[in-house]
């Protein structure tokens, strides 16, 4: 029984880690090192090269890493040469935007929020125009290495960096 519970906990931990958000250019981080105001930053922008600059550690590649991986990298980089057992906290202040164009009332960049569906994204872009296809849209996902345009339903989970095109309908 104990081994079954342990296995279940291991699987859940792995699942959560796999679903953790991957940082990329345009994300803004907050870094807090307890008791060290000179190492605490309210806004640290991930540059177009996927890197941040941090005191003592220089330039760090964070693109593709989770917040917890960046926390660990900062913690291990600061310890033991600079701080003894540093307590580091990293959070996302602002996610990189996604883009909505085509048959919406306010096309352009939209600030990402976790849990957004395509339906909500269109709403944030002012809603559909009268000519819009209200059942589906085309999406180019930042996470697709081939950047292929894919047809998606309105329940699709929007990701930062997505490019959403709402087509018009002929009827």
Automatic annotation (TrEMBL):
Domain Polysaccharide export protein N-terminal intervals: 18-92
DNA damage recorded as keyword: no
Signal sequence coordinates: 1-18
Protein name as catalogued: Polysaccharide export protein
Domain Soluble ligand binding: 98-139
UniProt organism field: Gammaproteobacteria bacterium LSUCC0057
Pfam families: Poly_export (PF02563), SLBB (PF10531)
GO MF annotations, alphabetized: polysaccharide transmembrane transporter activity
Keyword Signal appears in the UniProt entry: yes
InterPro entries: Poly_export, Poly_export_N, Soluble_ligand-bd
Keyword terms, alphabetized: Signal
């Amino acid at each position: 029984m104990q081994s079954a519970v342990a296995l279940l906990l291991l699987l859940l931990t792995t699942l959560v880690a796999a679903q953790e958000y991957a940082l990329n250019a345009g994300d803004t981080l907050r870094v807090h090192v307890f008791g060290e105001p000179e190492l605490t930053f309210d806004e640290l922008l991930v540059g177009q090269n996927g890197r941040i600059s941090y005191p003592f550690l220089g330039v760090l590649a964070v693109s593709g890493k989770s917040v917890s991986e960046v926390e660990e990298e900062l913690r291990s980089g600061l310890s033991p040469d600079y701080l003894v057992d540093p307590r580091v906290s990293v959070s996302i202040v602002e996610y990189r935007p996604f883009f909505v164009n085509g048959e919406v009332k306010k096309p352009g960049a939209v600030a990402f929020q976790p849990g957004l569906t395509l339906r909500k994204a269109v709403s944030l872009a002012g809603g559909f125009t009268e000519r819009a296809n209200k059942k589906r849209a085309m999406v180019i996902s930042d996470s697709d290495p081939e950047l292929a345009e894919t047809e998606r339903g309105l329940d699709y989970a929007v990701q930062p960096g997505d490019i959403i095109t709402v087509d018009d309908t002929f009827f």
